[in-house]
Amino acid sequence: MCAAATAGAMLTGCGNDNGDGGGTGNLVPPSQAAPAAATSASPTGALTQDQADRKALVPRAKVSYDKALRAAVAAVPDSKPVAAELEGSDVVGPRWDTQVATSDGTVRSVRVDAVTGKADQPHTESDEEGDDRRELAGWLKRATVTAEQAARTATDKKKGTVTSIELDDSDDGKLMWFVDVVTTTDWNKTTFDIDATNRKILREHVDTD
Fold this sequence. Notes:
Blueprint: H1 49-57, H2 65-75, E1 79-87, E2 95-102, E3 107-113, E4 123-124, H3 130-142, H4 147-157, E5 161-169, E6 175-182, E7 189-195, E8 201-207
Antiparallel strand pairs: 1-2, 1-5, 2-3, 3-4, 5-6, 6-7, 7-8
């Protein structure tokens, strides 16, 4: 369900490095997560490329993830948020690639300008299969935690800017919100796996690359 990354994307959110069905790989429980470096993982003290990309993009986004999702939901009647990811490059301005779904599991992608908040025309995912729609419809019924509640849980734990949020499940069937939070003190990204039924933080991973 993750919004597809586009050429020149500066932020990578809701990726899956370890095949667990969603989120960011190499995750550890919150109690074992190493604290973020004060400046950078680089031995020279310089920002890594990913950190520099985040530093260049995040401040340019004047529209937050929640406002982008509200614009997307307004563009698709009777829909609920599924995902949002901040994208952009030196050539293309900052934007939110969002996905919302109706109760039958039909997904529509809506691009929202991250400066003006204007939503483009929604379009339906052409490769979505019937099984995928039924699965997502079930997720929407099971998810008692909203996207905003999940994001608030993440930012209560780590102060920063939400740059990606996605509803997905893991191999063991847990339904979760995967939330990326970028801290502007070091431009690291922390991914939180948050149970979509009770708001518990299941895993936390700091990406210092």
